[in-house]
Each structure stands twice: as C-alpha cells, then as structure tokens.
Amino acid sequence: MPEVEVRLGARSYRIHVGEGTLGKLGQALQGLAQQVVLLSNPTVLALYGQEVLRSLQEAGLSCQVVLVPDGEQYKTLLWAEFVHGQMLQGRADRATVLIALGGGVVGDLGGFVASTYMRGIRYVQVPTTLLAQVDSSVGGKTGVNHPLGKNMIGTFWQPALVWIDPLTLRSLPRRQLLAGLAECIKYGVIRDREFFDYLREHRDEVLALKGPALEHVIMRSCQLKAQVVEADEREAGLRAILNFGHTIGHAIETLTGYVEYLHGEAVAMGMCKEAELAASLGLLQRQELKALKDLVAAYGLQTELPRGLRAQQLLGAMEVDKKALGGQLRMVLPQEIGSVQLRPVKPQELLQVLPP
Ligand SMILES: NC(=O)c1ccc[n+]([C@@H]2O[C@H](COP(=O)([O-])OP(=O)(O)OC[C@H]3O[C@@H](n4cnc5c(N)ncnc54)[C@H](O)[C@@H]3O)[C@@H](O)[C@H]2O)c1
Ligand SMILES: [Zn+2]
Predict the structure, then answer these.
(1) Whose CA is nearest to atom 18 of ligand 1?
(2) How far apart are the CA of 269 and the centre of ligand 2, in A?
(3) Does position 319 have pLDDT exceeding 80, yes or no?
C-alpha cells in the first residue's frame, strides 16, 4: 500500500493512501486506540459515517460521534468549546484518539480541539476533500478563525496518522475538486517539474478520478508537502514556499469577501499573477509563465484576476501579509517550473503587473 512517512522525530507519522481503505480505518487504529471520538459534519457523516462506524465497531473500538454544522463559519473557538464539552460529557480521556472525518474545516477544528483537550491528545486525519488530502491534513497546522482574521488562533500539533481514501472524492462537487488541484499544481511549481509535467500529461485521467493517476497525484503532493514540513515544521523559513500564489490569492479572497471564490480558485489566479511578476522581474522565462497558465487553464481554473479589482485595493489587502512579516512584503517567486525563491517585493514592482 502506498505510504508517505513524515519524519519529525517523536512526532513522526504515516500518510496512507489507498482506494477503498475507508472501511479499514478501524483495523489501522488497533494498537493506537481503544476509545475514539469521531468528529465530522452532517454532510460527510451521511456519506461515509456508516462505513467508518462499522469499521470502528468491528475493530472493537468504542466510539463517540460529535458533529459540528457544515461550513467555514463554524471553524471558531465557540465550536471548539462545544466539541470539548461533548468530549468531557462523553468521558473522553487522555488516551482517547480524535478522528477528524471531513474536509479542511473539520480537520483544522479537530486538530485544534485535540491539541487543547486535556493539554493535548492524539488525533487522526481522515480527509475527504482533495484540498484536505493534499494540503490541510498534512503538516500539523491546526486552527480556528477569529472575527478579526482567518486561522488567527491555532497550534502546531501533528496527527498520529493520516488515512486517505481517494474514492471519497467521487462524491465531492467538481468545483471543490478543481480548487484542490490548484494546490497540486503549486507543489509542482515550487518543488518538482516532473510532477508538473505529470499533471499536464495525465490531466484526463486525473479529472476522471482514475485510480492510479489520482493516487499518484495525492501521494506525490503529500510527499512534497512532507519534505517541506520535515525541513521546517514551524515555518521559520522554507515552509513559506508553500505560500506561492497565496499572497495575491489571499488578497483576492479578502476583497471578494470569501464568498465568490474557493480558496484554491483564488490561489490559481494568485499563482498566475505572481509568476507574471517573476517574469516581469526577469526571474522567470515567458515560456515558463505560459506553461503555468496553460496548466491552470487545463484544469478549468481561472488564470486572470477577477475583473474590477484595482491595483491599490490589492496592495491594500496585501498590507496584512506585509505586517505579519514585519514591514517588508516578501513573495515566493518561481525562477523556473520546479524551483522558487523568497524575495522582497516593492510596491512599484507589483504595480507593473496589477490592473491600474
Ligand atoms: N491546516 C492547514 O495547513 C490548512 C491548509 C489549507 C487549508 N486549510 C483550511 O482548510 C479549510 C478548507 O478545507 P476544504 O476546502 O476541505 O473545505 P471544507 O472542509 O469546508 O469542505 C468543503 C465542502 O465539501 C464537503 N465535503 C467534504 N468531503 C466531501 C465528500 N467526500 N463529498 C462531498 N462533500 C464533501 C464539506 O462538508 C463542505 O461542505 C479552510 O478552513 C482552510 O483554512 C488548512
Ligand atoms: Zn492554500
């Protein structure tokens, strides 16, 4: 069975990818847990609850189900406290293992709850969206939103296991699938030209969710993210390269109120624009920029900024990222497909490529 190992000393764990393995979760947890809390939302529970619960039962695990409503707006401290409360009432203890079954919202909330419940218990990620399978379930960033900012409250807390069944993507809305693929393209651009080419050459199979191609895309994405996390668990340096496309992507999300575009859709536009900046600075060849835009378009994602967004608005929205970095805006810029550099960027340089 294909696996990726995330090597972080005592905090190491396996990422397991396999079609049809959802029903084997219980088996995988034998030895790790006796008592589990299954955190999910009603949408995902309706689709996969039965299969997961049966497998937990067959493995002899006692299980408490805790549900939070479906939506990013429930990724908050208030709902974390609700989950804590349910677990206290259900007598979860320090040996209990929390299972986060769902997309990135359930995963981030579940990780946060696990990291704070009785000063930290183990948890297992069972991601069911592509974004969660290739990104949010790996790397141990947990968090909730605050009225003053997304993901502003959180912890670094690595899971004990990541259990991925690509068959769950069959029920995922197409738009969510494509948005997740934006992050896969990102991994190719920042670390792995061959993977970038693979995504181009196998597009039809990937989009048709064909087993081997889809599994490879998930595995390779997890591997690439794991390498970066291993080198820099707490984002002191290298991990920042995962933010390629995200400086402008976040600005787009902020300016459109987080309702118009999915995260991956905004990142796709952000990657194209940031690569354009790299080209205008002479770092990236024009044909490489074209290769990126072509691949983004081939996966049905938008390459151009939303109409109506102005340079000054975008710069303003990027101020937040700038402040977080202590004054100077630093961006991840590709120098070729497969390799990036972190470089300070001046507003005048950005203005060259933003709409007036
Ligand atoms: N921790 C990290 O490193 C990290 C990285 C990237 C993103 N994130 C976070 O991830 C979140 C976004 O995650 P997401 O894109 O998975 O969104 P999500 O969790 O909201 O899931 C999207 C929708 O799909 C539904 N769904 C989930 N699995 C399904 C399936 N198999 N079939 C049908 N429907 C399904 C969900 O119920 C939801 O309605 C954001 O909160 C973001 O901040 C975290
Ligand atoms: Zn992202």
Answers:
(1) 103
(2) 12
(3) no
Taking CA atoms, 246 is separated from 64, 202, 335, in Å, by 37, 25, 17
Residue positions annotated with a catalytic role: 119, 141, 183, 225, 235, 239, 243, 246, 250, 263
Per residue in 159-218, pLDDT (tens digit) is: 999 999 999 999 999 999 999 999 999 999 999 999 999 999 999 999 999 999 999 999
Residue 19 sits at φ, ψ, to 5 deg, of -65, 135
Domain parsing of the chain, residue ranges: 3-171, 174-351
| Contact assessment for residue 243 and residue 225, using Cβ atoms and an 8 Å cutoff | no
Atom index in ligand 1 nearest the CA of residue 130 equals 16
Fold of the 3-171 domain? Rossmann fold (3.40.50)
Which of 40, 47, 131, 262 for a ligand 1 pocket mutation test, highest count of atoms within 8 Å of Cβ? 131
End-to-end CA distance of the chain: 52
Stated pTM of the model:
0.97
Do the Cβ atoms of 134 and 195 come closer than 8 Å? no
Give the max Cα distance, the chain.
63
Q: What pLDDT shows up at residue 321?
A: 64
| Closest C-alpha residue for ligand 1 atom 11 | 104
Q: Any idea which fold 174-351 has?
A: Dehydroquinate synthase-like, alpha domain (1.20.1090)
Comparing 3-171 with 174-351, is the CATH topology the same?
Answer: no
Query: DSSP string covering 75-89, please?
Result: -BHHHHHHHHHHHHH
Note whether 122 and 97 are within 8 A (CB): yes
**Ligand 1 midpoint to CA 105 (Å):** 5
Pocket of ligand 1 (CB under 6 A): 41, 43-44, 47, 70, 72, 75, 102-106, 108, 128-129, 131-132, 135-136, 139, 141, 151, 168, 171-172, 176
Provide DSSP, 152-212. EEEEE---SEEEE-GGGGGGS-HHHHHHHHHHHHHHHHHH-HHHHHHHHHTHHHHHTT-HH
List CB contacts of 347: < 8 A, sequence separation 6 or more.
315, 329
